[in-house]
Design a protein that fits this description.
The complex is a heterodimer. Chain A is an all-alpha fold. Chain A folds into two domains: about 60 residues; about 230 residues, MetI-like fold (Orthogonal Bundle), CATH 1.10.3720. Helices cover about 75% and strands about 0% of the residues of chain A. The two termini of chain A are about 50 Å apart. Chain B folds into two domains: about 50 residues; about 250 residues, Orthogonal Bundle (MetI-like fold). The longest helix of chain B has about 45 residues. By secondary structure, chain B is mostly helical. Chain B is built from twelve helices and no strands. Chain B starts with a helix and ends with a helix. Helix content of chain B is about 70%, strand content about 0%. Classes of the chains: A mainly alpha, B mainly alpha. At the A-B interface, α2, α4, α5, α6 and α7 of A face α1, α3, α4, α5 and α6 of B.
């Protein structure tokens, strides 16, 4: 470089142009590589849909979709095979409901407390701790549900079986508290200070301001937090596989053991199932159902989150 | 114009009761926060107490065994280490490159929108679905087998959104003037990115990588779905051999087990003696993920504090 500046005649113009072209080509190649990396994420989604739909297609060519949606028994590995996804959905619904009964009130209260009552210092400490809590592996929560929470519940509720949706759901609720608290708190913090000041100026207390001004203003963000929590609960696997038992039965009572969509997939994967059998295809049909549900919840959550961001 | 004393008293009582309500709610808030924290404390203490008897050096150097007291986690932690190596080698370059493209190169175009929406969606896909993807695609279509490389790839795809989002956030906080200064000195876009943007956003990217890895190390469901064996009493072939070329990649194709699978296996046995093993291994796993998360959060905290553009 220096020599070309000192004596331009040494290097002909064409050489410099060639160098520039070189550089341009190199830039283009790098840009293409970076773009390819970003595009891979799209291929992952396409791959997921391709695999789920392909294997489910094989499944539905053997099991009528009407039976799949309406049958009230789920016995895919028996001779008398029944494929009623309702059974697994009931387990998923009951356990998610129990989890939300814990996570929504506790998580919302924590969010309101952190956003409206806590000092900035307390918030700085509490938020990272909550984030750490959400990083604990779910298999450990499963251990906790089966060997710590279940014995305590059995002491309170006599006759509770060793595996139950209640214990698994409770622990799952504890696991998703940080999600609810963190996203709701972000939504409440995004409410402009002027609204709070207006409320205080009218003589409202902190509590009144929190519940009648801040919470309604942040409702779409808080709703997004709840929906993302539902998506998380529906997709949760290990806690249910460990602590909820794996008997597929149509239940609405959380005191009973039951299989969910996710724990059924784990159960089949643990056994030795030949590639291409109906049992093998069943887990993809179950996975497709799961994917559709979480997709709907996630889309709804993101849509709500985006809406509240645009408002202020 | 003064109010009659009984009305003043009534207003004072009203204010006092509202202040009490404030105090009551603040107490409830602290209790809820305490509930969440006490639960983790209970979880950790319970595991440490249950598994206390197993914390011996041999626990790390023994294979799983039929006898609970002699079983160890050697194959599990080696397996986790190998799988994490593959995950890091795939997820870090891909995630950082994708993040850089989205922030620095992406044109305003519908393709960019599709990629962005897609990454948001991927972050919400349940981990077990990634397991099904790996089972259908990597194991059976590509024929990679139920091996270390399949597991590493699967977890890499799983944590890709975490790395991408962290990279983007880190890059976004670098002001435009840094780029302008670099362009002004005649640097190309890639030179600017390589020499300025990526190095300056390194702490943020590192935070994302650590968070992603700590998530990957605890993931169980996708690994079970691809069919990892739960009872492995041997180690994968060593990556360094004594014959030329001294480096072997056979370990990529080896069957394996990982820490979370070992914990799951021990937890689901009826014999309580194995529960102590599960507790000990669980305590180690939690300590690992918690310290990784704490490190990531500390890095982010320092980053926010020190750099003022």
């Amino acid at each position: 470089m220096t020599s070309s500046i000192a004596s331009p005649a040494v290097r002909p113009v064409s050489a410099r142009l060639a160098r520039r072209l070189d550089r341009h080509i190199k830039e283009r190649i790098i840009e293409a590589i970076l773009f390819a990396s970003a595009a891979i994420s799209v291929f992952i989604t396409v791959g997921i849909l391709y695999v789920l739909i392909k294997e489910s297609f094989v499944f539905f060519s053997q099991v009528p979709i009407g039976d799949f949606l309406t049958d009230t028994q789920w016995t895919p590995l028996f001779d008398d095979a029944h494929f009623g996804i309702m059974v697994l959905l009931s387990g998923t619904a009951v356990s998610s409901f129990v989890a939300l009964l814990v996570a929504v009130p506790v998580g919302t209260t924590i969010a309101i407390y952190l956003s409206e009552f806590a000092t900035p210092h307390a918030r700085e400490i509490a938020k990272p701790i909550l984030e750490v809590l959400s990083g604990i592996p779910t298999v450990v929560f499963g251990f906790f549900a089966l060997l710590f929470v279940t014995p305590i519940l059995q002491a309170i509720i006599p006759g509770l079986p060793g595996f139950s949706l209640l214990a698994a759901g409770l622990v799952m609720g504890i696991m998703i508290i940080p999600i609810v608290a963190s996203i709701s708190e972000d939504a409440m913090r995004a409410v402009p200070m002027a609204l709070r000041e207006g409320s205080y100026a009218m003589g409202a207390t902190r509590l009144q301001t929190a519940f009648r001004v801040v919470f309604p203003a942040a409702i779409s963000g808080v709703g997004a937090a709840y929906i993302l929590a539902i998506a998380r609960a529906v997709g949760e696997t290990m806690i249910l596989a460990i602590a909820a038992g794996m008997q597929p039965q149509l239940v609405w009572n959380p005191m009973e053991p039951a299989a969910t969509i996710t724990s059924f997939i784990v159960q089949v994967a643990l056994g030795d199932l030949p590639h291409g059998s109906v049992g093998y295809n069943t887990i993809f049909a179950a996975g497709l159902t799961l994917m559709l549900f979480t997709l709907v919840f996630n889309m709804l959550g993101f849509w709500l989150q985006r809406r509240y961001r645009e408002r202020y | 114009m003064s109010l009659p004393p009984e009305e003043i008293a009534a207003i004072r009582a009203n204010i006092a009761s509202r202040k009490t309500n404030d105090l009551i709610f603040a107490t409830i808030g602290i209790c809820c926060l305490g509930f969440a924290l006490i639960t983790i404390a209970a979880l950790f203490v319970d595991m440490a107490v249950t598994g206390w008897a197993r914390f011996r050096p041999e626990f790390f150097t023994e294979f799983p065994s039929r006898r609970a007291a002699q079983a160890g986690i050697l194959s599990a932690w080696v397996g986790s280490l190998l799988v994490m190596t593959v995950t890091a080698m795939v997820a870090i370059p891909l995630g950082v490159a994708a993040g850089v493209w989205l922030e620095e190169y992406a044109p305003k175009h519908w393709i960019t929108d599709v990629i962005e929406i897609n990454i948001n969606n991927l972050a919400g896909v349940p981990s077990i679905v990634f397991g099904l993807l790996a089972l259908g695609l990597f194991v059976y279509t590509f024929g990679l087998g139920q091996s270390v490389r399949t597991a590493g790839l699967t977890l890499a795809l799983l944590i890709l959104p975490v790395v991408i989002v962290a990279t983007r956030e880190a890059i976004r906080s670098i002001p435009l003037m840094v780029r302008e200064a670099s362009f002004g000195l005649g640097a190309t876009k890639w030179q600017t990115t390589r020499d300025h943007i990526v190095p300056y956003s390194m702490p943020g990217i590192l935070t994302g990588i650590i968070l992603g890895m700590s998530r990957a190390i605890g993931e169980t469901a996708p690994i079970i779905t691809i069919g990892a064996l739960t009872f492995i009493a041997f180690l994968p072939p060593a990556p360094i051999t004594d014959v030329a070329p001294f480096i072997s990649f056979e370990w990529l194709k080896a069957p394996f087990t990982v820490m979370p699978i070992q914990i799951f296996n021990w937890t689901s046995r009826p014999d309580p003696a194995f529960h102590a093993n599960a507790a000990a291994a669980g305590a180690i796993l939690v300590a690992m993920t918690l310290s990784m998360n704490a490190l990531a959060i500390y890095l982010r905290f320092r980053l926010r504090r020190n750099i003022k553009w």
